[in-house]
Specification:
The chain is of the alpha/beta class. The protein has 12 helices and 17 strands. It has helices spanning about 40-50, 75-80, 105-110, 150-155, 155-170, 185-195, 210-215, 230-240, 255-260, 285-290, 300-315, 330-340, and strands at about 1-5, 15-20, 30-40, 65-70, 90-95, 100, 120, 130-135, 140, 175-180, 200-205, 220-225, 245-250, 265-270, 295, 320-325, 345-350. The strands form 4 sheets. Strands 3, 4, 5, 8, 9, 16 and 17 form a 7-stranded mixed beta sheet that branches. A hairpin with an 8-residue loop joins strand 1 and strand 2. Helix 5 (about 155-170) crosses helix 6 (about 185-195) and helix 5 crosses helix 11 (about 300-315). The structure holds zinc ion. Zinc ion binds near residues 103, 106, 107 and 116.
């Protein structure tokens, strides 16, 4: 099959189209003909080489995969009774980006993103930058009529991540205020919509004037171009000096200290990423005197993914697709993402 792989870590130039063996499937697994796969920041980190992930090279990235079931392994119709009539060749599916064992204490408690052997598709196993992908049948959700393959591949990782951050971790409530950094990013554009769905007041930052009206269209109450204005001063003015209840962080050192200073008493900072670097300083005086919480977040649970999928199908949450590009152009697409020249999601199609 055709795929885009990298044989060594490095910049976008290490991505190369290649002919590779198709994945084989075992009992309980399915083979999916990929119709769309979205690009996530994790793809860039994995390509560059993250110490936390030991990849087998050459590697195929791609966490968010939608497509058509090509073939099912032994016993598949019995594996997933949630799918009416079982799963068969020809079914339209989207694959859960999080992979868990289903047996450990965390999994049994429904906190499967804390699974002792938790992995992410496109990191722990080969992903969707390819014509075919394999998965456990239990990791496939049906795509209802009316939802395109591109939209199905656009939502899982970023909407799941943003949902778990705001709902599962920060427990954002109606009437509270939230600052969402980089509202044009995948997780950022999901966070604005989820926070509005929860009836919070949303302040969002973006990196260009062109992104201001787009973030407003998502529902943000105020949008700040951080290249033009000092977001810390603007938020202080907007909140009458009080600060916000929740900061949605995924940037790191570029925004961290101002984010902490902007938290109101009892505020929560929730983070899922570090696009500007891994290390920050923490002024403990802010943390204890204002009784702040600093919360880490990774992906989300299967139940949360199913909740998010329902809201996407209902049209309550709408993944924004910036562009759909051929898989062979994955390198240029990743370069665009690295330059933050994207609003929403970039989708690869084989
Ligand atoms: Zn587990």
């Amino acid at each position: 099959m055709r795929a885009v792989i990298f044989r060594r870590h490095g910049g976008p130039e290490v991505l190369e189209p290649a002919e590779v063996p198709a994945p084989s499937i075992g009992p309980g697994e399915i083979l999916v003909r990929v119709k769309a796969c979205s690009i996530n920041h994790l793809d860039l980190w994995l390509r560059e080489g993250l110490p936390a992930y030991r990849l087998t090279l050459p590697h195929i990235s791609g966490c968010d995969v939608s497509g058509v079931v090509e073939r099912v392994g032994e016993g598949v119709t019995r594996v997933n009774p949630a799918l009416k009539g079982g799963m068969k060749a020809g079914d339209r599916v989207v694959l859960a980006p999080g992979i868990s064992c289903g047996r450990c204490d965390w999994c049994r408690e429904g906190q499967d993103n804390l699974c002792v052997s938790y992995g992410i598709r496109g990191a722990a196993v080969p992903g969707g930058y390819a014509e075919l992908a394999s998965a456990k049948a239990s990791d496939a959700l049906p795509i209802p009529e009316g939802l395109s393959f591109e939209a199905a591949a656009a939502f899982p990782l970023v909407f799941l991540t943003a949902w778990h951050m705001l709902v599962g971790r920060a427990a954002l409530r109606a009437g509270e205020t939230v600052l969402v950094h980089a509202a044009g990013s995948g997780v950022g554009h999901a966070a604005v919509q989820i926070a509005k769905h929860l009836k919070a007041t949303v302040y969002a930052t973006v990196g260009s004037e062109a992104k201001v009206p787009k973030a407003k269209a998502l529902g943000a109450d105020a949008v700040i171009n951080y290249h033009q204005d000092n977001f810390e001063e603007r938020i202080k003015v907007l909140t009458g000096g009080r600060g916000v209840d929740v900061v949605f962080e995924h940037i790191g050192p570029q925004t961290w200290e101002a984010s902490l200073r902007l938290l109101a008493k009892g505020g929560r900072l929730v983070t899922c990423g570090a696009t500007s670097g891994p290390s920050v300083t923490l002024d403990l005086r802010y943390v204890f005197s204002r009784q702040l919480s600093v919360l880490g977040s990774l992906m989300g649970t299967r139940a949360e993914l199913e909740e998010v999928a329902r809201l996407v199908v209902a049209g309550t949450l709408r993944p924004v697709i910036d562009a759909v590009v051929p898989l062979a152009e994955a390198r240029a697409a990743q370069e665009r993402m690295a330059n933050r020249d994207v609003f929403g999601k970039l989708i690869l199609v084989p």
